[in-house]
Amino acid sequence: MESLTPLEIARRQIEFAREYTLSLLADVGDAEWFALPHGAPTHLAWQVGHLAMAEYGLCLFRQRGRQEIDSELMSSKFRKLFSRGSTPAADASVYPAMNEIRATFDRVHAQVRAEWPSLEPEQLAVEIELPYAVTNTRLGALYFFSHHEMLHAGQIGLVRRLLGKPPVR
């Protein structure tokens, strides 16, 4: 039986969640990103932008603080548009173009992957404030992100269904 470190468990959970989210987005057409189906308080563009913002916050900023490269990953305006407590707007002109939202989503994840090898086990034990899962540490922030992405994958799945798409699983 393979023995995994807590960091490797977190990495695998994050990768699993991302692959599942990508499977939900694979057949979404351009016109569907900002659609607010009847009864739905959100759209796919907000969900994807929110996941990019959250991954930056939990997997980069909380792990190593702000770095020079961060301004290339996403603007402060982007973070504010998709932060916790923001309300998805029906007006697509409020947001960056969908290709920029998706590029930010992909760019942040690529940066998390690039920085992963530099995460030091002793630094993962540093305590943090909420949100976290499992433990109130930087490692807990990584665990929380995988759970957070799966929660939003569920919302993406529901919006897909309300748009008339078949379930992925």
Q: Could you walk me through the main structural features you see in this protein, from its secondary elements to its overall organization?
A:
The protein is mostly helical. The protein has a single domain, classed as Four Helix Bundle (Hemerythrin (Met), subunit A) (Up-down Bundle). The protein has helices at residues 6-25, 44-64, 70-73, 76-81, 98-115, 138-162. It is globular and about 45 Å long. The two termini are 28 Å apart. The mean pLDDT is 95.
Concise structural overview:
It contains 6 helices and no strands.
CATH topology: Four Helix Bundle (Hemerythrin (Met), subunit A)
Largest sheet: none
Using only CA atoms, what is the Rg? 16 Å
Q: Specify the oligomeric state.
A: single chain
What's the number of extended β-strand segments?
Answer: 0
Tally of helical runs: 6
Regarding CATH, which class?
Mainly Alpha
Named at the architecture level, the CATH assignment is Up-down Bundle
